[in-house]
Amino acid sequence: MNTVLHKAESRGHANHGWLDSYHTFSFANYYHPERMHFGVLRVLNDDKVEAGMGFGSHPHDNMEIISIPLHGDLEHKDSMGNVTVIKQGDVQVMSAGTGIFHSEYNKNNDREVKFLQIWVLPNKKNVTPRYDQISLNEIEMKNHFYQILSPSPEDQGVWIHQDAWFSLGNFDENNSATYTLNKTGNGVYTFVLEGEVEVNEQKLSPRDGFGVWDTTEFQFKSLTKSRVLLMEVPMKI
What we know:
By secondary structure, the chain is mostly beta strands. It folds into two domains: 12-135, Jelly Rolls (Sandwich); 145-234, Jelly Rolls (Sandwich). The chain is built from no helices and 22 strands. The strands form four sheets. Strands 1-20-17-22-15-13-14 form a seven-stranded mixed sheet, with no helix packed on it. A hairpin with a 2-residue loop joins strand 18 and strand 19 (202-204). The radius of gyration is 17 Å and the shape is globular.
């Protein structure tokens, strides 16, 4: 098994006033030659947007973009005509494909919104742009990892153009789980949202990231009440 540890305090940071963003991987003005990606996982941004503020319309192409709200409400508009609001308990996916414009704004004028913005390199280029979002309320499980994203529209959760599987876990203190990888050649990047955990005896704190690859499974333990995101992705680009 190979591993890489990214402590929360080692991330890139940009505070624009209306936007406070932490970058696990190189992004915008943050560049680190050893922090370009984890396999096809290219961007993992931990964003906080002030009340009533947001990202104006901007383009993307040939990227799978996943947004996971952690607090508050985020309004999305795009060139396909979608106007939606995503909130904590939702997950949103956008296949940019041949090209798309979109904007994201804090829906509320009295409180901030926090969300993860994740970019995954696709395994198919120039696909027709696509948008989807779901509520996780019906599939959420306690003390188990539950799948929120996969390569197949027939599976649980949203889907993207990549052999990737994302899972969330909400754990009470002193609970254990084994994660078995879905595909040979994939790795898993663990991102801790809340609490203290161990992955194969590596202790992790909130906003720490820990990648494992060249393995078929790994062990997880919650040291405190915790919430964790697992991102299984191909390691070869």
